Amino acid sequence: MRRHLTLTMTIALGVLASSITTTAAQVLQEKNPLSKPTTPLYDPCGFQKPTPIYNPKDPVQKTLGDYASLPQIKTEMEVLAKLHPSFVRAGTLKGKTVCAQSIPYISIGKNVTSDMIEEKWNAYIEGAQNFGGITLSGDNTAPWKQEVVGLPEDFITENHQGKPQILFVGGLHANEANPTEVLVKFYQFLIREYSKVGPDPLVKKVVDNSVIHVIPLVNVDSRRHLELNPGKTPRRKNRMVWRREYQNNDDANQSIISGTAGVDLNRNFAYNWDSPDSDEDSTTPSGNFYRGPDAASEKEVQGLVDFIEVQNYYGELKLIVDMHDGIGPEFTWNEKARDDFQKIQPPVDQPHLLLLGALNAIRVSAKTAQTLLIEDHPMGGTLEQYADDTVDYAIGIELSDNRFFTSGDQPKGQPTLAETHFQKLKWPLLKLIKAVCKACQK
Ligand SMILES: [Zn+2]
């Protein structure tokens, strides 16, 4: 009895002593600057500071006004995913930009976590291992990209009948504020509506039966530069900030604020990248449409392509919508979308007609919204073309011809341009999702 007590005491003292030792070591470490590991935040472009508050009294200042900034979008996505874990997931694309920033995305769909490809892959492998001997080959860094050899075809189809996925992309161009804000409003609306008691039936159907990914802001570097430098003219291209380390581009050492460096992300995708019909200045580094030194040379494009490939591994990514502003209103679709969407009945359910109607309604100039085929577009390396080559349905939307009109330009008391656009577009966009989601049509 006594012996047992002593033993317990010894152990207790031992634990205490070791905890004291640890604490002392920690204290020592903190007092000695040499032994303290210092890991300053890698921030080559100086972006890790608060966004300046919009000053309406400054007539030169043309900022985003109350449009969401990049840090606001990131934080909101994370909060929404925490609040609604059963149908919202937030993340960032693989890799970082030259300014060490990540590109945020949000995914919405019932049980979205278990629908994500990585987790599904793990479950799949477990099932396959129980099924019998399998061999894995391929890329070890992305296990879900490995090939499974020796499984019967019916096992694969039975285990990978997933929900259709839809991807909305905005903000490839930094000088287009409205697509980003419209897409932010769109994911906010879907989440708010689905959380209601008695949600809208169409919202419920699409969230229950599909997975909707939204990447509202791809060109995070140039956009963040703009947010921190109110009053500066926004530029189209990425890498708005001079960065000495950057080697690929001959003009990289020139100030990007002068507009000479940087790549047009929507000319950098690896499809028709070196098309002879591309814009003339797409091969000139100082050109407004510079396509970059190589196909998919840019981190933003690489991250987006990786996301698309992973989500589409089993062919579940059905539709990619790329939203822009400035030369619209314009609705672009690929041939498959044109052929299939025209078959949808009744006419009021035809998503392209609804979208055209919406674009006509939101047009700023007297120009009428026009429809174009992606296959007929002359320029190369665009997301639309890459999407057309990769998934079933590809859609491009040019909102208006009013490129950088933000809430900072809005007369007081008026709804913002993005709000007006969003109200006109939200139902057509939902019908677009419904059109590629068979289970949503029941
Ligand atoms: Zn654009």
Tell me what you see in this structure:
By secondary structure, the chain is an alpha/beta fold. The protein folds into 2 domains: 73-109 and 163-441, Aminopeptidase (3-Layer(aba) Sandwich), CATH 3.40.630; 113-161, no CATH class. Helix content is 38%, strand content 11%. It has helices at residues 2-31, 70-83, 112-115, 117-131, 153-159, 177-195, 201-209, 220-228, 299-311, 335-341, 351-362, 383-390, 417-435; strands at residues 88-92, 104-108, 135-137, 147-149, 165-170, 211-215, 317-324, 330-333, 370-373, 393-398. The strands form 2 sheets. Strands 1-2-6-5-7-10-8-9 form an 8-stranded mixed β-sheet, with helices on both faces. Helix 6 (177-195) packs across helix 13 (417-435), helix 7 (201-209) packs across helix 13 (417-435) and helix 11 (351-362) packs antiparallel against helix 13 (417-435). Mean pLDDT is 78; it is low at 1-33, 140-145 and 241-259. Bound molecules: zinc ion. Zinc ion binds at residues 172-173, 176, 266, 324, 326.
